[in-house]
Structure formats: C-alpha cells, structure tokens
C-alpha cells in the first residue's frame, strides 16, 4: 500500500510502520536536512539584523543577528523550522560557527564603512545543542581574532535550556566567554526551567524578557506584573534588560517608564538586511 512505508527501528531488526502523514513528514525532514547541509556548505544562508533600541535614549544599542534561509524552490524558510532540523542533525555546530563568523565580520565591515568603531554590539544566538557539542568559547575566540573586534562588541544569546541540560559545562563555557570580554544574554527569559540559583551563580549580563510576556502586557495585568518583577530581579542582580516583541508605541512607552533597558520589536524595525542596518543606526543617532 502506497500509504505506508516501513522503517527499521534503530539497532534492532524490528520493522515499524509509518502512519500516513508521518511518511511525508519524515521525507520532508530528510530533504530539509540534506538541503540545509548544502546551504551551509555553499554559504547561501544569510543573516538579518534586528535593532535593539535603548528605551531611555532611543538610540540603537546593537543588532541581533538572525539566520535566514532563502530556498530556491521553497522560498524563505523560517528559523523556527530549520533550527530544530539543524539541532537534530548536528548541523547546528557548523551553522552556529558560521553565524558567529558572519555576524562579527559584518560588524567589522560596518565599522570600516563608518571609519571608526561603532558604539554598538552584535547579538548571536547559541543553541543548547551547540553549547553541548561544540567548544563555543574557542569558536568565539577564533571569530573575534579573525574580525579584529574586541570581545565586548559581542553578546551571546543563550536560552535557559542551555544551562539546565549541563550546568557544569555551561558554567565553564560562560566563564571562558567572560574571559574574552563577551556579554551573555539569557534569551526568552521566563519560558524555560532554569532556577534563580543559576541566575545568581552564572555570569549573565542581560535578561531578554520573552515576547509572550511583553505582548501580553497590552491585555492582561498578570503580564505587566511579571515584566515588572523580572525588571526588579534584573536590577537587584545588576543585570541589563531587553524586552522582545515590542510591537507598539504603547509598549515602548510603558517599558521605558518601568525602567526596561532596551526594546526589540516590529515597532522599531523588523530584522534588516546587512546593508540596511548602518543607515538605520545613522537615522537614530543623529
Ligand atoms: P529569538 O532569538 O528569540 O529571536 C527573536 C525572534 O522574534 C526573531 O524571529 C524575530 O524576528 C522575532 N521578532 C522580533 N520582534 C518581533 C515582534 O515585534 N513581534 C513578533 N511577533 N516577532 C518578533 P526569527 O528570526 O524567526 O527567529 C526565531 C528563532 O530562531 C530565534 O528566536 C532563535 O531562537 C532562532 N534563531 C534564529 N537565528 C539563529 C541562529 O543563527 N542560531 C540559533 N541557534 N538560533 C537562531
Ligand atoms: Mg535571540
Ligand atoms: Mg529571544
Ligand atoms: Mg524568542
């Protein structure tokens, strides 16, 4: 029957049957993995750069580098789709190194175009799987050396899961990164399972408040209370804050009034191409 395909269970002689739908899912995943490998090898991924705006001064504090994959036939594929494929296949290691190298090389190019080091940093996402499998602090050290940039121009964005999975390894890596002067941001803060003990113990510089709480502020008082509490916590621990998902002027004003450090979201700008970023910085720093 064409609806079914057989798969062999790993390590055993047992044969299982795919349910309809699973067949195409598995096939889709397989081809996405193959195509993603090819895209990484042929250097055809790109980075988009979304501004992080200082809510007190309205100036651009930095840009978050976000991977983009424009597939010839399938069009633009979202990172929420291809990052999990990269994580499951191990491709996240070369992809993560590529993102680091490219983000820093791009920032160095903007500096050169500007004629002086810009007062901005670049944020690069580091997946939990990448942290577990790669020597991230050596990768950062190499990328910094090649770009000629100082470590304090770089922020690594880690999620809570990166720490929870292997706290000892995460601690060593974070200490290595601090030794290079890089900054550490806790991404999507509030959605994971990390304990406050990690926040206290680890050298975390910035809490990025997850978009769900920020957009929730418009409608419910609980989200406002949560954001207020996170800002208080960050302040008490001496950390900076960035709010994700700032989609409206009301949110920007409310967050600014609550003392949030930076905002990122469609209200300020969507992720921009590398060529659009420097003009955007100029337009906001006049
Ligand atoms: P993230 O690190 O939390 O990045 C923020 C995401 O929120 C981006 O989605 C951004 O486009 C989106 N966003 C920003 N402002 C707004 C807003 O106002 N409203 C809404 N609705 N969304 C907003 P994007 O680019 O699709 O990336 C999704 C996720 O994929 C990222 O979440 C990050 O976890 C992952 N990712 C992207 N690039 C990389 C990469 O190079 N390496 C790794 N490991 N992960 C990456
Ligand atoms: Mg991020
Ligand atoms: Mg985030
Ligand atoms: Mg997020």
TrEMBL record:
Residues 29-285 form the EAL domain. This is Diguanylate cyclase/phosphodiesterase.
């Amino acid at each position: 029957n064409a609806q079914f395909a057989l798969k062999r269970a790993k390590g055993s002689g047992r044969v299982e049957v795919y349910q309809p739908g699973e067949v195409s899912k598995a096939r889709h995943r397989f081809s996405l993995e193959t195509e993603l490998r090819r895209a990484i090898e042929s250097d055809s991924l790109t980075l988009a750069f979304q501004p992080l705006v200082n809510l007190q001064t309205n100036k651009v504090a930095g840009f978050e580098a976000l991977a983009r994959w424009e597939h010839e036939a399938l069009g633009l594929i979202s990172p929420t789709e291809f990052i999990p494929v990269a994580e499951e296949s191990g491709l996240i290691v070369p992809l993560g190194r590529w993102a680091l190298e490219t983000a820093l090389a791009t920032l160095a190019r903007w500096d050169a175009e500007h004629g002086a080091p810009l007062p901005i940093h670049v944020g690069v996402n580091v997946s939990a799987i990448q942290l577990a499998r790669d020597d991230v602090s050596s990768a950062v050290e190499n990328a910094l050396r090649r770009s000629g940039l100082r470590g304090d121009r770089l922020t690594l964005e880690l999620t809570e899961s990166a720490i929870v999975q292997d706290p000892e390894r995460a601690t060593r890596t974070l200490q290595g990164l601090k030794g290079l002067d890089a900054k550490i941001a806790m991404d999507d803060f509030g959605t994971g399972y990390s304990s406050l003990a990690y926040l206290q113990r680890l050298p975390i510089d910035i809490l990025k408040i997850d978009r769900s709480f920020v957009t929730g502020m418009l409608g419910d008082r609980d989200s406002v209370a949560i954001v207020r509490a996170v800002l208080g916590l960050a302040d008490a621990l001496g950390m900076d804050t960035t709010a994700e998902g700032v989609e409206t002027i009301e949110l920007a004003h409310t967050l600014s009034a609550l003392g949030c450090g930076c905002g990122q979201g469609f209200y300020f700008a969507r992720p921009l191409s590398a060529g659009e970023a420097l003009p955007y910085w100029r337009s906001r720093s006049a």
